[in-house]
Design brief:
The complex is a heterodimer of chains A (493) and B (121). By secondary structure, chain A is mainly α. Helices cover 78% and strands 2% of the residues of chain A. In chain A, α3 packs parallel to α14 and α12 packs antiparallel against α13. By secondary structure, chain B is an all-alpha fold. Classes of the chains: A mainly alpha (493), B mainly alpha (121). The interface between A and B is medium-sized, with 26 and 29 residues.
């Protein structure tokens, strides 16, 4: 029965689509196969999420070898949630990429883009689904290597340097992760995540366990773009092709957050993380610096893509702030913001990609007077910007609400005030766009009147609509996040 | 075991730190990749050295032997080596493309070229 194999198929179908696309070479067929693979993964993710909601966690044994000797794929409330986000964004961006990438890459290279896109999606989905720590490293590198190439496909030569810098930092991060897993393996003798969690309390040397925690934190934080390990992100997002920026901004860092959550609460356990090392305080401090400094830097950017890239660093700060609170509300906020920020940034970068297509660049010179010439795009950016700020009625508000609740619940009033204040900074940089688009006269670089192609505008507006929809109908994004947080905290109140 | 008996781990630490230092301190793109490779090699040693148990024989079941060395780290490191090779190949390909686009593989010259073109644009 194929339904029983869905946990494996959700990863394997895009993985097989990639060499198929390389063999076929024709660009239309390449896009069709990529879209079919993404659609299959999305449908599989939805089915898995429904089944996890109904029947609890799914454990799939690869090759029918029982864990802990074989590799186990484990779909529970948290991984199903992230699966839906990643595969959904994958499908929407694949729809968008048809016109967007065709304008940025020569026709004979299009099939290579779609092959790498499928590989990246497969790697990210594999990271989410697997229950084996080393298997996670393999998928992490599959996703990372393909994303380095995807970024390098950008038009400007700076994309090459951005990809190279990301390669160096990303590989260091992955290697730190491997060192951490190696130390865990030496302490427990197993690589299966659930098994490590069981055996770790009886492990002998607490210093080795703490060292493993430290290495894994630093390694995953490099992939997460947690301050001060975020330096690769602005260049990579600014110079990559528009579809790639949207895809990576909405998924890659979120899956890294998932890995962090899985290791902190699924393996090391709440007590170890909060008591043995001052992890919550460290995360809190780094998150606050990330949010404040990245939001302020975003205010000064001359290019829309760089502005929203720095905004991403700040929003990831909100997610790690929720993790640092280490409470039920904090974790719910972190997981919910993972989803909400994914769809918000996805919508923003897809719309900015439309501007980049029409104007040739996404700098503020090209945005002056855009409100009249590309009204739908500008309106979409304003609505998604409202979600970024956290205005009630949008998805961004729902997760920020839980963040503030968590801060107040922990008695940290200054933190709640800080969250509101930094949202005002976000308001300032969204206002920069509104001022340029609606209150300025069109400049020399502003494109002629006319929207981006419908094939690009429709997926972007789908995500914008999702931003508003999930602001009101929160049963999935908040409910799923609450279930995931409950799962992670186990019995801890 | 004495401190000297743990020589594998001292070498691991030395390679790790040397590799990271090269990545940070050298501006040449190819040299950075070499540093990265050295860093990754230290991790291979970190996995394999504990796999050899004291008094353990090769992991092939045979009569008369009770203690076998652990074969799993070798499997994991084969995977990691492949990943390392792929990363190195990709990094070198990027270095070739950067050389074609900028005419140099020294990071400070490349960054200066970017600053100049940004100033002119």
């Amino acid at each position: 029965m194929t339904l029983a194999h869905l946990p494996a198929l959700v990863v394997v179908v895009p993985l097989i689509a990639a060499p198929l696309i390389v063999l076929l070479r024709r660009s239309t067929a390449a896009w069709a196969i990529a879209l079919a693979a993404c659609a299959f993964s999305f449908a599989a993710a939805l089915l898995l999420a429904a089944e996890v909601l109904a029947a609890g966690a799914i454990s799939y044994h690869l090759g029918s070898w029982p864990p802990p000797w074989g590799i186990e794929y484990r779909v529970d409330a948290l991984s199903a949630y992230v699966l839906v986000l990643v595969s959904g964004i994958g499908m929407v961006t694949a729809l968008y990429a048809w016109r967007s990438i065709a304008a940025e890459l020569p026709r004979d290279q299009l099939y290579l883009f779609y092959a790498l896109y499928c590989l990246c999606l497969s790697g990210l989905l594999g990271m989410t689904v697997t229950g084996d720590a080393f298997n996670l490293f393999v998928f992490m590198e599959i996703a990372s290597l393909s994303s380095y190439v995807l970024i390098a496909l950008g038009r400007h030569r700076r994309a090459l340097l951005a990809a190279y810098q990301y390669l160096i930092l990303g590989t260091i991060g992955a290697t730190f992760y491997v060192i951490g897993v190696g130390l865990l393996y030496l302490m427990t003798g197993t690589l299966n995540i659930a098994d490590i969690a069981e055996r770790l309390p009886q492990a002998g040397n607490p210093r080795a366990v703490l060292a493993a925690l430290a290495f894994i934190t630093v390694g995953v934080s490099l992939k997460l773009a947690l301050f001060p390990l975020h330096f690769w992100l602005p260049n990579a997002y600014a110079h990559a092709p528009s579809a790639v920026t949207a895809f990576l901004a909405a998924t890659a860092t979120k899956v890294a957050v998932y890995v962090l959550l899985r290791f902190y609460f699924g393996i090391f356990g709440f007590r170890l993380v909060t008591e043995s090392l001052p992890m919550p305080e460290i995360l809190l401090a780094l998150s606050v610096v990330a949010i404040v400094s990245a939001s302020l830097v975003a205010l000064w950017q001359a290019d829309l893509k760089r502005l929203f890239a720095y905004s991403s660093v700040a929003q990831i700060g909100y997610i790690t702030l929720g993790i640092g609170m280490a409470s039920r509300e904090g974790l719910t906020a972190a997981v919910a913001h993972l989803f909400n920020h994914g769809i918000t940034k996805g919508a923003l970068f897809l719309l900015v990609g439309g501007i980049a297509l029409r104007a040739g660049s996404a700098s503020f010179d090209a945005v002056r007077g855009l409100g009249r010439r590309m009204p739908l795009t500008s309106l979409g950016i304003v609505i998604a910007g409202l979600s970024l700020i956290g205005v009630p009625g949008t998805a961004g508000f729902t997760s920020k609400w839980y963040l503030v609740l968590g801060a107040i619940g922990a008695g940290r009033w200054w933190l709640a005030a800080l969250i509101v204040l930094t949202s005002l900074i976000a308001l300032a940089y969204v206002w920069r766009f509104v001022e340029a688009a609606y209150l300025s006269e069109p400049g020399a670089r502003t494109p002629e009147a006319g929207e981006a192609p419908a094939a690009m505008l429709a997926p972007a507006w789908l995500l914008v609509a999702a931003c508003v929809y999930f602001g009101f109908e929160t049963s999935f994004n908040i409910g799923g996040a609450a279930r995931a947080a409950a799962l992670l905290l186990g019995g801890v109140p | 075991m004495s401190a000297l008996g743990h020589y594998s781990y001292w070498i691991t630490v030395l390679l790790m730190v040397a590799g990271l230092y090269i990545v940070i301190a050298r501006g040449n793109l190819v040299k950075k990749l070499i540093g990265l490779s050295i860093f990754q090699t230290s991790v291979y040693l970190l996995y394999i050295a504990p796999g050899k148990l004291v008094g353990g024989t090769a992991p092939i079941v045979a009569d008369g032997f009770k203690l076998y060395s652990n074969p799993l780290p070798h499997v994991l490191i084969l995977t990691a080596i492949v990943v390392g090779v792929a990363t190195l190949a990709l990094g070198l390909a990027l270095a070739v493309r950067i050389r074609e686009a900028y005419g140099s593989i020294e990071e400070d010259e490349i960054l200066a070229a970017d600053r100049d073109s940004e100033g002119r644009a």
